[in-house]
Design brief:
5-stranded parallel sheet; Rossmann fold; 2 domains; alpha/beta; 4-stranded antiparallel sheet; about 40% helix; Arc Repressor Mutant, subunit A; elongated; about 220 residues
């Protein structure tokens, strides 16, 4: 899953990028509202983590503009502004959740995972695909009760397909959602990861739509 972090404080931005990456997310960072608007227009992020007090274009205006453009990416506001007025203004502008500083990284990660599940129409933290179960909070996968070890990108691909089960997921969608702007090797890796996941979880789990993409049947 791909996350955009909009934060102008360099140390916090670096901490958020590192924490999210270690938790399996692909992460892009914007340091001001103008850059955030450009990136949100170019990429369909799974979640946008947005500070309100950012340069050039503030966070409230960023939310308002992306919603006006039809962007449906979940937005988690992350800010030191904790008054009810600020919260109401952010939520009424189109934000989906609001977390005040200081915060724990565990809570941030839990809120991000919840937003991703809700946006995909799968609010339950466990996804069941026949004998395969995916515990999204722990990033744990089992098959017939036995834990299966997946590499980070293998898990990211499986989770994205599972959250969109019943729908065709194109290769370009996979590349957009499981890589970030620091990845530079995306040629045939989707096929490689699909093959590896099939080998570990069963060849019938992921169906190929030749020349287009993949689907996990509902």
């Amino acid at each position: 899953m791909r996350v955009l972090v909009v934060e102008d404080e360099p140390d916090l931005a670096a901490t958020l990028r590192k924490t999210l990456a270690e938790s399996g997310f692909s992460v892009d960072v914007a340091a001001d509202g103008e850059e955030a608007l450009w990136q949100a227009e170019a990429i369909a992020y799974d979640v946008i983590v947005l500070d309100l007090m950012i340069p050039i274009v503030d966070g409230w205006e960023v939310v308002r503009r992306i919603r006006a453009r039809g962007n449906r990416s979940p937005v988690l506001v992350l800010t030191a502004r904790d008054t009810t007025t600020d919260k109401v203004r952010a939520l009424d502008s189109g934000a989906d959740d609001y977390l005040t500083k200081p915060f724990t990284l565990d809570e941030l990660l839990a809120r991000i995972r919840a937003l991703i599940r809700r946006a995909a129409g799968s609010p339950a933290p466990v996804i069941r695909l026949g004998e395969v179960e995916i515990e999204t909070s722990a990033r744990r996968v089992t098959r017939s009760g036995a834990e299966v070890d997946l590499a980070p990108k293998e898990y990211a691909l499986l989770e994205f397909l599972a959250l969109h089960r019943g729908a065709l997921v194109t290769r370009s969608m996979l590349y957009e959602h499981i890589y970030d702007d620091r990845d530079d090797s995306m040629s045939n890796l989707a096929e490689v990861y699909v093959s590896s996941v099939r080998r570990k979880l069963g060849h019938g789990l992921i169906r190929t739509c030749r020349g287009v993409g993949y689907i996990i049947d509902a």
